[in-house]
Amino acid sequence: MTDSAKRLTTAQRKVLDDATRMLQEWSKREAARILRNPNADGWIRLIEIMEKARKDKRVRTSAGALDFLDLVIDLAGDALTASTADQAIEPLNDVMPLAIHGKAMRQGEKKNPGGPVRKRIAKELAKSPNPAALKPRHLYELIKAKSPKTWEFSGKGRARSIWVTGRKEMHYPWFSQICKEEKDKLLS
């Protein structure tokens, strides 16, 4: 027992004992809550691996890497009850509101409205008297029939894709997803 603990009055010792007991009970309840999560073991293992990385000489000598590692370890520790990575990084959302492309948004700035294919999908859906009935394959054919010469269409079925000059290829599954998103925006 330390000298300061020996000098405690009876009332102070009772308060300290009560606080210690409450903390132990809370710790047991929290541990049980964490272990009920089927993903807890994976998060615990991730923390163990990152703690080993902290001992690595190259990590220790890089202030930026060490700071980042500390941040990630804290996030993983907070995420012991999380089921997904999105839930794990949720604490960062309040601290760092970012635009889609990672740049801080200015007040009143609009998010990225999308590329030319997304805009074209939205336009075709807006023109349609019954946008809910338009399937992605119909939209694909409509856009293909009225596309600029700089757009190339290839493939059949789900292997279809669209090439827009100066942009990445858009495969059909992604095209279908954009159709769904634009249809949801229009119908909501």
Helix and strand layout, with pairings?
Elements: H1 3-6, H2 10-36, H3 40-54, H4 57-60, H5 63-78, H6 85-88, H7 90-95, H8 116-127, H9 136-145, E1 151-154, E2 161-164, E3 170-171, H10 172-187
Antiparallel strand pairs: 1-2, 2-3
Defining key terms:
single chain, 188 residues, mainly alpha, three-stranded antiparallel beta sheet, 10 helices, 61% helix
| Helix percentage range | 55-70%
Q: Could you tell me the radius of gyration in angstroms?
A: 28 Å
Integer average pLDDT: 79
The unreliable regions are none
What fraction strand?
A: 5-15%
Structural class: mainly alpha
Terminal CA distance reads 67 Å
How many β-strands, per DSSP? 3
- Number of helices, where a helix is a run of at least 4 consecutive DSSP H or I residues: 10
What is the H-and-E element order?
HHHHHHHHHEEEH
Task: Identify the strand order in the major beta sheet.
Answer: 1-2-3
Largest sheet: 3 strands, antiparallel
Shape: elongated
Structure in a nutshell:
With 188 residues, the protein is mostly helical. It contains 10 helices and 3 strands.
